[in-house]
Amino acid sequence: MIKTGKDSFIEESKKTLEEIYEMLHSLKGISLLKLQKEKTALVMVDLINGFTREGALKSSRVEEILPSVAKLQKACLLNDFPILAFADSHSMVSPEFESYPPHCLAGTSEEEIAEELQQVGGYQLIRKNSTNGFLEEEFRHWLKEHDKIVNFLIVGDCTDICIQQFAVTLKTWFNKENRKSRIIVPMDLVETYDLGIHNGNLVHVMALYNMIINGVEVIQSVEV
After folding, report:
1. Which long-range contacts link 111-115 to residues 24+ away (Cβ below 8 Å)?
2. What pairing do the DSSP bridges indicate for beta strands 124-128 and 83-88?
3. Which domains does the chain have, with CATH numbers?
4. What phi and psi values does residue 181 have, to the nearest 5 degrees?
């Protein structure tokens, strides 16, 4: 239930949004080389054809971050940072299609990593059948096998869905284990889509804010 009238809700929200906007623009960046490669991994989430160039959920907003992500990916590869790449991959019976249009079907070009990132290479591919990559057994196995990794740079899409779910779940998992971690999300390397009432700018900002209040380290950018 919304416990206020429409006009009051909009007016109060406007003030809050202004404060969140200013807070996000005041955030600083970090240098990649100041992160210890023995403790840090790059995670690229759903930078695949089905969210960039084809299909029901393709978005030019997401496509536009590909060159910058490829630049960071290349720097991580040259400096021996582990790299993971999640890729949505569904069958036609996926219950997820009750919430989203059919997308990224297994065996189609939609589930393939974007060409720019394929050309750089150096990543371990993990296909996922939900919006939250943390739930995949292959990732949980990777996490166990790389128990010295406590810093994660998370880039990709969508800010308000797969990025937010993975980042917050990963952070709360480390909290549960009583282990300090840095779950880092660069604002310039995550994006979402516009579709009907799904206002890309609004949900992008609110997702960044929600991650911050849940302990995720949102930053402006990564210097490479």
Report:
1. 111/48, 111/49, 111/50, 111/87, 112/48, 112/49, 112/87, 113/47, 113/48, 113/85, 113/87, 114/47, 114/48, 114/49, 114/52, 114/53, 114/63, 114/66
2. parallel
3. 34-223 (3.40.50.850)
4. -150, 160
Which of 155, 160, 164 lies closest to 186 in space, CA to CA? 155
Query: What residues contact residue 6 under an 8 Å CB cut-off, 6+ apart?
Result: none
Q: For 77-103, how does the pLDDT look when each residue is reduced to its tens digit (9 = 90+)?
A: 999 999 999 999 988 888 988 898 889
Query: What is this structure's pTM?
Result: 0.95
How far from 86 is each of 5, 19, 26, 59, 174, CA to CA, in Å? 42, 33, 30, 18, 20
State the Cα–Cα distance between residues 98 and 201, nearest whole angstrom.
24
CA distances from 166 to 16, 71, 190, 211 (A): 25, 22, 13, 10
pLDDT tens, position by position, 63-78: 999 999 999 999 999 9
**88 vs 6, 38, 191, CA distance in Å?**
38, 28, 16
Could you give the 3-state DSSP secondary structure of residue 189? helix
